[in-house]
Amino acid sequence: MKRQAGKVLSHVAGYVGMRTIEIGLTHGLFEALAKHAVGLTPEQLAAEKSVDEFYVGVWCRAAYAAEVLESPGSGRYTLAPGMDKLLLDEDFPGYLGAIPSVMLQPEMFDHFSERLPSGERTWWDRTSPEWIAAVSGTGRSFYTRLVPGGLERVPGLTDRLGSGSSIIELACGAGIGLARLARAFPEADIVGLDGDAYSLNLTTRRLTEEGLVGRARLIESSLEGLDETDRYDVAINNISMHECRDIDKATANVYRALKPGGTFVISDFPFPSSEEGLRTVPGRIMTGIQFFEGQIDDQLLSVEDYVTLLGKHGFREIGSFEITPVHAVVHGRK
Ligand SMILES: C[S@@+](CC[C@H](N)C(=O)[O-])C[C@H]1O[C@@H](n2cnc3c(N)ncnc32)[C@H](O)[C@@H]1O
Fold first, then answer.
1. With the C-alpha atoms ordered 263, 267, 272, 277, is the resulting torsion angle positive or negative?
2. Which end of the chain is more exposed for a tag (fewer CB within 10 A), N or C?
3. How many angstroms separate the CA atoms of 201 and 207, rounded?
4. Residue nearest to atom 25 of ligand 1 (CA)
5. What pLDDT score does 153 carry?
6. Is 175 touching ligand 1 by the criterion CB < 6 Å?
7. Residue 268 CB–ligand 1 contact under 6 Å
8. Helix (H, G, I), strand (E, B) or coil at 190
9. Which residue has its alpha carbon closest to ligand 1 atom 5?
10. What is the pLDDT of residue 12?
11. How far is Cα 210 from Cα 217, in angstroms, rounded to an integer?
12. Which residues 6+ apart lie within 8 Å of 43 measured at CB?
């Protein structure tokens, strides 16, 4: 009984840790501590951030308990090793700082709970700007790992991306990937497709802000509506392929849209294919993501599912690799 109680309580402790991290990120407490290698007392931290001293003390103890802060003595706190990169450096490949915010958006668990009796479904155009921003923040680390490092691991892919080549990013969302692709492959023609108009507006804004106007053509369409033939050298889909309404139609459309020899790259969460995998930390996080996916009427897929899908639609030289325990790439050639 004691051991079973411990399991429940460890989930409660995890919740406390995640809320603590989210408060520290929202109020810039980690950022302030990162500037002081010798650490700050709660009083000093409160003064620096113009927030309540007593509350900061409460937060510091919780963050120390969660092992994201260390306490080197004299009542001071510092960031624990690596936390500057993991929580604050948006371009670090292992950046985790966007995850607490996505988990805490009402779209993830609150709306699921409200809809549980009715089973009502939703789609991206009914989600909030905050949700789309939070998801895009999580997708960012996937792009950091994929462009160009992950793509370089796909046999023959980057060799094709010289002048006259073209890349389509399917379900490009808020455009972080398109901007990365435009920079990494300056000679390639870049196209972004998404079914959500609001996300495409964010993409336009991002490309403008990053001085990349005219570098990417945008198409508002579903993957199921993609109707092009022999056009692209590479098609990329980041954390979205599992969301297709009709994944067979979408995959057949991608196959048709690729030039002969072109490559389809699916970069996604590798949902565990065994019950054992569900009980790992990555598996548990992915079962959390399923609460949103369920509301848009899909579920994450396993690497094996994607390999089967590509094989079924005529792709050859199918391969896959894991970049992190929550990020896998599956690829195939036309
Ligand atoms: C999880 S977000 C990822 C966005 C982006 N790839 C990223 O990593 O930040 C999923 C995106 O896929 C788009 N999407 C989902 N299903 C789609 C479909 N069948 N056709 C086109 N876009 C789709 C949504 O509009 C949304 O922008």
1. positive
2. N
3. 10
4. 196
5. 98
6. no
7. no
8. strand
9. 173
10. 98
11. 15
12. 53, 56
